[in-house]
Specification:
Elements lengths: L6 H8 L6 H6 L10 H21 L7 E2 L4 H19 L5 E2 L6 E2 H9 L15 H27 L4 H12 L2 H6 L3 H23 L3 H13 L1 H21 L5 H21 L1 H11 L19 H5 L23 H11 L5 H19 L1 H7 L13 H17 L6 H21 L8 H21 L3 H23 L4 E2 H5 L2 H9 L9 E4 L7 H5 L6 E2 L5 H9 L4 E2 L2 E2 L6 H6 L2 E6 L9 E7 L2 E6 L6 E4 L3 H4 L7 H12 L5 E5 L1 E3 L2 E4 L5 E7 L7 E5 L2 E5 L8 E6 L5 E5 L8 E6 L1 H11 L4 E6 L3 E8 L3 E8 L4 E5 L2 E3 L2 E3 L3 E6 L2 E9 L4 H51 L28 H28 L1
Parallel strand pairs: 5-9
Antiparallel strand pairs: 1-4, 2-3, 6-8, 7-8, 9-11, 10-11, 12-24, 13-21, 14-15, 15-20, 16-19, 16-21, 17-18, 17-20, 22-23, 23-29, 24-28, 25-26, 25-29, 27-28
């Protein structure tokens, strides 16, 4: 709504003689809104809505629930914990042993943790990390509404409340409802309006500082979402050029050059974080591009537009539906935008063209592929839809700003057109996301908005404004409540954390390198969550080669994850897993011994654990057939190569359609490998009870635990139509000890173990390959006896070097690939940006001085003419050096009296003052 003022005061200022004294006494006062009120509304309403929803959901401290959803549960919480641990203990931000057998933490930081606001976690108590993330999500949602409202305020100085309404819908859109838990994206969402406004200033005013800094901050915070932002900025830059008044070719060339320079500088500002990430991503499964060979469409445009209806279930799975809800009033205002005569046809064509492009991007596979960084998203579809929401809300705001000039009949037509669309959607849309009630709710809200427009146009603007605020808040709150904020048990997530930490701390300081396996895991990143060196990892930066070797050895792995699930004692030994945490007590074996317990958590030591590095024969890679499909055969072949017996003994079994049965022949640890890759879920009936296995098609060994002879074990596949082809194996402890002795003949003994530096000694009886269970990374530098040696991949995934016979001192150091040039580029970009800022400032000052000289010369000429007419006028002395006029103060000679100086200063600034006063008076009248 336009700024609400006291009408009587405005009238009294213009024609005070017409206002009788009696009316002055009886007039009613109306609260006067300030320009910041809309901004405050856009920030605080979304924040209050989220707090109310958290209280209703029982989220801590209102209950024992927590807002941990999907990746926030499995990745963000553990990585935030590891980040805080490093900050508090002085650990290196370049490398971490606490997850994934050792990972490039600089890349992990760049992908998940780069938001500058995340450094505030240093002030947060360890036990409240989940709450820290939740609070940051709420604050960033509020800041998103604030930034969008500020952007709208720059386009309309009079719509005080209106910017708040649209800011609320931007902050509580369908995109936020679906992805608000994705805290690493939110910085890009809240920065986006500032970036767009910066681009507009760059094109229209040739000022690029805001654009460059905000885009650089966005790229630094999350490069992935910033890819989509950058793609849009290219399109929007072209759109802005089209909307500008036609000019000479030189004007467009200069704009393009300016846009290119500031865009490159923004990327350079983030290069220190960005380049290490790019280098790390080359080794992930996302490092390859497979461009679509054919064009296909997922769904019609009508169905997509229907998703503007509120309370529609959000899509975060593998379907491609966009989450584009931003208030049902967009149906009304979009039609009013098209009908508004105050808005040019060219503007309508440009913005509608951009909307159409986004609809095509949501629906067409090739455009979808391009928008997502030349990859198809693995769930969480249409991640660029926040840009579409921004455009749609801005278009509707343009119509809203012209409500005063919009005839009531246009409002009626827009209302009935919107109602017809909703009724058609009820008839035609068959998506399961749409509950029948959503159509009726949409019609009710549309009728309410239309009624408020009529109240507004009837002159009761204050009433309409405050009712609109209540209605907008209610609609956004209902949609967010219905479609967002799923919770999980906080107590369950943190139940054994303290016990695990106590047991982990009892292991330090360690005399040699070790890793810890947690048998009952919450996530694959439990090592990061509780800060102990571990094997498993779930991350978009996961090493693809490591995932492959894990699968070959019988452990669970996927595109962006690998874990210890499915490992045998042999695999644990090779991976230096010296300790294991169990949630239940188990019996000691020849391979494992009980150490201690805390609460309900038990610590065991693996007695036959290989060190971080050991020397193998030079021809081991040629002889070991680790590319076979059956992981049991892969492990057995390693044993045979070393001269030991097979560790996994085939115990047979019987297949009967979707069941597999076998009877243990002796007491031991048993595993089953499912040969049919179409089987995804298996249930095993064991003496201790039933046990379920998921993601069996990933090809890992099913751990059945210790079994005794005489009991028939039955496994059943959930897929009734699939035959459960499988093989059962018993793990041989004697063979395990044999292969351990052979692999441990020439071990490396560490003398120092830190995040980025390792030192040790090794005695080699003969020349061979020093194999380490460190994931291969080009950032590692290895020196043997003080001389740098070349590193290489062993078995396609691990760091290895060649060593000669004799005693050697081995030093490892790590520095992420790409970090040094990235830091240099960032430093250079900062210097260039500062130079450009000073250059522009100096140019503006020179321009101001030139204008001052011209004004002074005109003033002097007038005074000289006056002196010719008036003999009593005192002549002003000449100014010999015009270059001395460096600023407005120096444009007035010392010989002029103080009153004349003041008069001259008033004339010099008069035009700007009058313009400012005119604007203030107009605002007061409104």
């Amino acid at each position: 709504m336009t700024e609400i003022k006291e009408i009587d005061d405005a009238v009294r200022e213009e024609i005070p003689e017409r206002i009788p004294e009696a009316r002055k006494k009886k007039r009613r006062t109306v609260p006067v809104l300030k320009s910041r009120d809309g901004l405050m509304i856009a920030f605080f309403v979304p924040v209050l809505v989220m707090i109310c929803i958290f209280a209703q959901r029982g989220i801590f401290p209102f209950g024992e629930r927590c807002f941990l959803r999907t990746d926030m549960y499995h990745q963000y919480a553990p990585f935030f914990s590891e980040f805080q641990h490093k900050l508090r203990t002085g650990g290196s931000l370049l490398y971490s042993w606490d997850v994934g057998m050792g990972v490039n933490f600089a890349a992990l930081y760049a992908y998940y943790l780069a938001s500058p606001l995340n450094w505030l976690i240093l002030l947060c108590p360890k036990k409240f990390i989940i709450e820290f993330m939740t609070i940051m999500i709420v604050i960033k949602i509020g800041l998103s509404g604030l930034s969008f409202a500020w952007y709208l305020k720059q386009h309309s100085k009079n719509c005080i409340l209106g910017v708040g309404f649209f800011g609320i819908f931007y902050a509580l859109s369908g995109y936020m409802a679906a992805y608000s838990w994705n805290i690493m994206w939110l910085d890009c969402i809240l920065l986006f309006p500032l970036i767009v406004y910066g681009l507009e200033r760059l094109v229209r005013e040739q000022k690029g500082m805001l654009y460059c800094v905000t885009l650089g901050l966005s790229i630094l915070s999350n490069y992935y979402i910033s890819i989509m932002t950058c793609l849009f900025l290219v399109l929007y830059f072209i759109a802005l050029l089209i909307l500008e008044e036609p000019g000479p070719v030189r004007k467009y060339v200069e704009s393009c050059v300016r846009f290119g320079i500031y865009s490159l500088l923004s990327g350079g500002l983030a290069a220190g974080v960005l380049l290490p990430e790019i280098c790390a991503l080359q080794s992930t499964a996302s490092g390859n591009f497979d461009f679509p060979k054919a064009w296909t469409s997922y769904f019609p445009i009508f169905d997509m537009i229907a998703r503007h209806i509120g309370n529609v279930e959000t899509e975060i799975g593998l379907d491609h539906w966009p989450n584009i809800y931003c208030g049902v009033a967009v149906f009304l205002f979009f039609l009013l935008y098209l009908a508004c005569k105050k808005i040019s046809v060219k503007e309508k064509a440009v913005y509608c063209g951009l909307l159409l492009l986004f609809f095509a991007s949501f629906s067409m596979n090739v455009l979808n592929f391009i928008w997502h960084g030349f990859h198809y998203p693995n769930s969480l579809p249409c991640r660029q839809s926040f840009i579409y929401i921004f455009l749609m809300l801005f278009i509707c705001f343009r119509a809203y700003a012209h409500l005063d000039e919009t005839p009531k009949k246009y409002v009626a037509v827009a209302f009935w057109g919107s109602i017809c669309f909703v009724l058609l959607a009820e008839k035609l849309v068959t998506q399961e996301h749409f509950h029948f009630i959503v159509y009726y709710v949409a019609i009710i809200f549309l009728a309410a908005y239309a009624g408020l427009i009529y109240i507004y146009k009837g002159g009761r603007r204050a009433l309409a404004g405050f009712l609109a605020l209540a209605l907008v808040s209610m609609e956004a709150a209902i949609n967010t409540t219905v479609t967002s904020v799923t919770t999980t048990s906080r107590e369950s997530y943190t139940a054994d954390n303290e016990e695990a930490r106590i047991l982990k701390d009892s292991l330090e300081p360690a005399s040699d390198f070790y890793r810890v396996e947690k048998k009952t895991r919450k996530t694959k990143n439990d090592g990061a969550w509780m800060n102990f060196p571990s094997v498993s990892l779930f991350s978009s930066t996961a090493n693809a080669d490591l995932s492959k070797i894990f699968k070959k050895l019988g452990c669970e792995s996927s595109t962006n994850a690998y874990s210890i699930t499915g490992s045998t004692p042999l695999v644990d030994s090779i991976f230096s897993v010296k300790y294991a945490l169990y949630s239940d007590a188990v019996s000691n074996t020849e391979l494992m011994m009980y150490l201690r317990e805390s609460g309900g958590t038990y610590l065991y030591e693996n007695l036959y654990t290989l060190p971080l590095g050991f020397v193998l024969p030079s021809d081991i890679e040629e002889n070991w057939q680790y590319e076979m499909d059956n992981p049991a055969e892969v492990q057995n072949d390693l044993c045979l190569v070393t001269g030991a017996d097979e560790v996994l003994v085939d115990t047979g079994g019987t297949v009967n359609k979707n069941t597999f049965t076998f009877t243990p022949d002796m007491t031991g640890e048993y595993y089953v490998f499912v040969l049919n890759k179409k089987v995804k879920n298996v249930k095993a009936d064991l003496p201790s009870g039933s046990k379920s296995f998921g993601n069996v098609d990933r090809g890992y060994l099913l751990e059945l635990g210790t079994l005794s002879p005489g009991y028939e074990v039955k496994l059943t596949a959930d897929e009734a139509g699939e035959q459960l082809n499988a093989i059962a194996y018993r793990f041989s402890e004697d063979a395990m000890i044999q292969v351990y002795d052979r692999l441990n003949r020439m071990p490396m003994h560490l003398t120092s173990w830190k995040d980025t530096k390792l030192s040790g000694t090794v005695t080699a009886d003969r020349a061979g390959t020093l194999f380490t269970s460190i994931p291969f990374d080009k950032g590692w530098t290895v020196k043997v006896d003080g001389q740098k040696v070349e590193t290489r991949k062993a078995f396609g995934a691990f760091l290895a070097i060649d060593v000669g016979s004799g005693d050697h001192v081995i030093d490892f150091s790590y520095f992420p690939e790409g970090l040094k040039p990235g830091v240099l580029i960032t430093g250079g970009s900062i210097v260039i940006l500062i130079f450009l800022w000073f250059l522009r400032r100096e140019m503006e000052r020179r321009k101001a001085r030139e204008e001052a000289r011209k004004i002074w010369k005109m003033q002097r000429k007038l005074e000289e003419e006056s002196s010719d007419d008036d003999p009593e006028f005192e002549e002003i002395p000449d100014i010999d050096d015009e270059d001395a006029l460096d600023d407005p103060d120096e444009t007035i000679p010392d010989e002029i009296e103080e009153d004349e100086k003041q008069e001259f200063s008033d004339e010099y600034l008069g035009e700007r003052r009058e313009e400012s006063q005119d604007i203030d008076r107009d605002n007061q009248k409104l």
